Amino acid sequence: MEHLDDDTLALIAMAELEPDRPEREHLAVCPVCSESLAELRQTAELGRAARTIELLEPADAVWSNIHADLGLSPQVAAVPRVADFAPDAGTSPDGRFAPDARDTAAPAPVTPIRTDQSGRRAFARWPIAAAAAVVGLIGGVAAGIWWQAAQQDSAVVVAEAELDAFPGWDASGVARVEQRADGSRVVVVDLQTPTEDAGLREVWLIKSDASGLVSIGYLDGASGSFVVPAGIDLAQYPLVDVSAEPDNGDPAHSGDSIVRGELRAS
Amino acid sequence: MTRSGDTTRPETDDDAGLVEAFRAGDERALVEAYARWSALVYTLALRSLGNPTDAEDVTQKVFIAAWRGRSGFDPARSRLPGWLVGITRHTIADAHEARSRQRRLDEAYTAELPGARDDDTVQITDRVMIAAELEQLEPVPRRVMRLAFFDDLTHAQIADTLGLPLGTVKSHIRRSLFRLRSRLEVNDGAS
């Protein structure tokens, strides 16, 4: 059989899933999968054991000494705080070191969200960023994931979208809708450019006239899979959108879209 | 090695920008590295040496050595935190050696320092590294992983607790688990 996919390995490592007989047989003979599983299990075990670890910060004088000893410039004299770089700092999206972010340090464009009198949220129509060139070539990483998923997964790709950047964002990617054997549908998003510095990123399905939208989850890393709720007709919600969201608990779309594209049947 | 590594997908390092700037000598990269990993270095040193002053001394030496020796950091061989931990271990070992020498000089000093331990160092290192990396996950995956690891909740319970779709929870756990695994590699060849 094929190698076990990452989902299955993670579920087994987290003791969420008991491997079935073919999987056990494969693990017994495949050093690649069994080693990967062993490492993931060890990671999970360490993660549980990390409960008792209390991380402690060194005294401020340590940085002052380093600063003096290395003769660093006065601009970096302040004691560096993890909160200034943690993704949830609620700070500028370019808090973390990302050369790309420095080039686009200008405030990200806030796209207007219109709220009509019924209080229902309605989206102004945006032109898909004309400046963003259509993605002709998918980079090696995304193509690799795509290829690998296509090899491993019996799911059928029923629609695809090229995701183009909004002004101010240097990003692109693809989305595809997979129909699983049980009829469920999954939107798989692969971004070509890392956008980790954007903080929280949320994935949405939006109506073509922007009169409605539904969130399908948060993107972690450059790609992710999101189950489409059973009641959602994708013909009614053909736009896939990834937005940058402040970590403020507000469930609404921030209006700050990173990429978007229209699904087309494939 | 990851199972994906033998196909067409490379392990991407989401700290690539930081690493590049660090090697190029951009001070802001040292600032970020210190912000993100000084607690890791200090906690490791404190656990091994049992003394805040000595642990601060180690932390200072580690970052000074890392900056001066940044040309020796090879991102193809290790990630930045793993490299820093490698330097930390060497520096801690030096501190223990200096203590032993002092102890030999000072005959009255026979008892092992309370709290000092260097037995299960590898296990402790990994646990502290995981704790530090958990802190650096994005907010939603961090909440998910804390519930999974610390509260022993099932994926379904986590989905209920956080009001997230089950598929999203599974996706966060898979990605975070793979990311944490990739961060556990320590380059002990660091000098």
Fill in the keyword field for this structure.
heterodimer; A: 266 residues; alpha+beta; nine-stranded antiparallel β-sheet; two-stranded antiparallel ribbon; 11 strands; 24% strand; B: 191 residues; mainly alpha; 66% helix; globular
Kindly describe this structure.
- The complex is a heterodimer of chains A (266) and B (191).
- Chain A has 266 residues and is of the alpha+beta class.
- Chain A is 24% helix and 24% strand.
- Chain A has 6 helices and 11 strands.
- Chain A has helices at residues 6-13, 21-29, 31-49, 60-70, 99-103, 140-152, and strands at 113-115, 121-123, 156-165, 172-179, 185-191, 200-206, 213-219, 223-227, 239-245, 257-262, 264-265.
- In chain A, strands 3, 4, 5, 6, 7, 8, 9, 10 and 11 form a 9-stranded antiparallel beta sheet that branches.
- In chain A, strand 3 and strand 4 form a beta hairpin.
- Chain B has helices spanning 16-24, 27-49, 52-68, 80-105, 121-135, 139-149, 155-162, 166-183.
- Helices cover 66% and strands 0% of the residues of chain B.
- Chain B has 191 residues and is mostly helical.
- In chain B, helix 2 packs across helix 4 (80-105) and helix 3 packs across helix 4.
- Chain B is built from 8 helices and no strands.
- Chains A and B meet through helix 1, helix 3, helix 4, helix 6 and strand 7 of A and helix 1, helix 2, helix 3, helix 5 and helix 6 of B.
Number of separate helices of chain A: 6
- Please state the average pLDDT score of chain A: 75
Distance between the termini of chain B: 24 Å
Helix content of chain A: 10-25%
Largest sheet of chain B: none
Structure classification of chain A: alpha+beta
**Overall 3D form of chain B:** globular
Q: How many helices of chain B?
A: 8
Specify Rg of chain A, calculated over alpha carbons. 22 Å
Beta-strand residue fraction of chain B: under 5%
Biggest chain contact: A-B, 80 and 83 residues
Q: Distance between termini of chain A?
A: 28 Å
Low-pLDDT sequence parts of chain A? 88-95, 98-153
